């Protein structure tokens, strides 16, 4: 079956490791282009939320209808910090949870949500925080991703552009740089000075030129590799799960009042089967086995050598969008009606599986149109796709 070693061994066969010296990045004068077409962009509307929690509900239940009067009861936590905590934009410290819970008369663990509980819905939880908040249109949110990738690509191409240099030479401080590179908000919501500084970074005259330049980079596929580096919704969920599990463990070990922490909840969070995700879309429907540095949860049926692949482009049609991630099991052989990952030279191809009129097993894609006779492939060059995750 398809052989992909444990990513922790750093011996991925025939893999292309992710590099920050990208030789296809365009220079500010736009002289070179990349992989012919931009990969699909999936906007994560909850990108800024890293710690969904129960603080707001417990505050309201405790009779504190407004946040400011409640914050006055917590002198060690600033109002701005408390607001960010409640909105899930920062992860709480154990001592902060203890202080908040003491005022509310609840246990610290009661402020922590289990995001994997059947009754938890992220969109529903977020509703109170979305009301009145500044938001971007779909187009602006998508462009924010392109801009994030363009800034990352610019810095990857010139190693000297550290956070310090970006601040000193281009007036983009580290906190702003992080927000730009993670697409926290659209260009139209940055002030004139920030836009001017971004124009300076790329050697452009104004916002119109900046938008045109970034869009051109994206359409030519130049930003594909740096787009893959921007954490997506699945990455965010993985990080959130780990942070919550870590907080629960820390609360358990720091408890001095005999409080009982739900051991099953902690162990369930920590036991979840996470697998490494690979995948960089290439021309012609191919995928490079490039590590993305992220993980995704695998189903219980996944074998010991399972891994994830970012689809990147909708080569199988609309039913398998480019933002999807599939789970591949090298110890299972593809079946008709399913999907397969096959190796072609140094790269890979995702194919739908069917049986031909002669009874032979075939794999095919629709964009581009491509067909492979699976029966003739070596076992180590093909593997079954056992799940797809559309986040």
Description:
By secondary structure, the protein is of the alpha+beta class. Strands 1-2-6-5-9-4-3 form a seven-stranded mixed beta barrel. Helix 6 crosses helix 10 and helix 12 packs antiparallel against helix 13. The longest helix has 22 residues. The N terminus is likely disordered.
Task: Give a brief rundown of this model.
The chain contains 13 helices and nine strands. It is of the alpha+beta class. Strands 1-2-6-5-9-4-3 form a seven-stranded mixed beta barrel.
Architecture blueprint of SSEs:
Blueprint: H1 55-61, H2 67-71, H3 79-86, H4 94-104, H5 122-130, H6 138-157, H7 163-170, H8 174-181, H9 192-202, H10 207-219, H11 224-229, H12 233-254, H13 263-271, E1 274-281, E2 286-297, E3 307-310, E4 325-329, E5 339-344, E6 347-355, E7 361-366, E8 369-373, E9 382-389
Parallel strand pairs: 1-3
Antiparallel strand pairs: 1-2, 2-6, 3-4, 4-9, 5-6, 5-9, 6-7, 7-8
Helix and strand composition category: alpha+beta
Total strands: 9
Q: What is the residue-averaged pLDDT? A: 84
Query: Order of strands across the biggest sheet?
Result: 1-2-6-5-9-4-3
Question: Stretches where pLDDT falls below 50 for ≥5 residues?
Answer: 3-35
The biggest sheet, with number of strands, parallel, antiparallel or mixed sense and barrel status, is: 7 strands, mixed, barrel
Count of helical stretches: 13
The share of residues in helices is 25-40%
Distance, first to last CA: 28 Å
Question: Overall 3D geometry?
Answer: globular
H/E series, N to C?
HHHHHHHHHHHHHEEEEEEEEE
Spatial extent as radius of gyration? 24 Å
> Strand portion, in percent?
15-25%
């Amino acid at each position: 079956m398809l052989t992909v070693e444990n990513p922790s061994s750093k011996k991925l066969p025939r893999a292309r490791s992710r590099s920050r010296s990208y030789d296809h990045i365009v220079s500010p004068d736009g002289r070179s282009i990349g992989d012919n077409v931009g990969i699909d962009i999936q906007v994560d509307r909850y990108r800024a939320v890293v710690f969904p929690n129960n603080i707001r509900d417990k505050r309201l239940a405790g009779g504190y209808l407004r946040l400011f009067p409640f914050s006055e009861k917590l002198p060690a936590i600033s109002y701005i910090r408390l607001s960010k905590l409640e909105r899930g934009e920062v992860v709480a410290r154990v001592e902060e949870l203890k202080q908040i819970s003491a005022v509310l008369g609840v246990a610290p663990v009661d402020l922590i949500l289990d995001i994997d509980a059947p009754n938890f819905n992220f969109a529903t939880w977020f509703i109170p925080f979305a009301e009145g908040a500044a938001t971007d249109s779909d187009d602006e949110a998508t462009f924010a991703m392109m801009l994030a990738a363009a800034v990352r690509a610019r810095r990857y191409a010139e190693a000297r552009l550290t956070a310090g240099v970006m601040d000193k030479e281009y007036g983009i401080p580290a906190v702003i740089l992080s927000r730009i590179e993670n697409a926290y908000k659209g260009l139209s919501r940055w002030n004139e000075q920030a836009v001017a500084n971004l124009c300076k970074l790329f050697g452009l005259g104004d916002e119109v030129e900046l938008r045109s330049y970034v869009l051109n980079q994206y359409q030519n596929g130049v930003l594909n590799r740096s787009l893959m580096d921007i954490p997506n919704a699945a990455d965010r969920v993985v990080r959130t799960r780990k942070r919550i599990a870590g907080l629960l463990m820390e609360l358990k070990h720091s408890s001095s009042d005999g409080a009982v922490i739900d051991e099953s909840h902690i162990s369930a969070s920590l036991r979840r089967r996470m697998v490494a995700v690979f995948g960089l879309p290439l021309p012609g429907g191919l995928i490079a086995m490039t590590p993305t540095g992220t993980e995704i949860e695998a189903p219980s049926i996944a074998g010991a050598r399972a891994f994830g692949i970012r689809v990147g482009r909708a080569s199988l049609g609309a039913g398998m969008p480019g933002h999807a991630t599939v789970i591949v099991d090298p110890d299972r052989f593809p079946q008709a009606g399913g999907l397969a990952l096959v190796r072609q030279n140094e790269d890979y191809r995702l194919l739908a599986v069917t049986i031909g009129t002669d009874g032979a097993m075939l794999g095919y894609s629709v964009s581009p149109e491509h067909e492979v006779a699976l029966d003739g492939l070596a076992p180590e060059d093909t593997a079954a796709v056992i799940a797809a995750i559309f986040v």
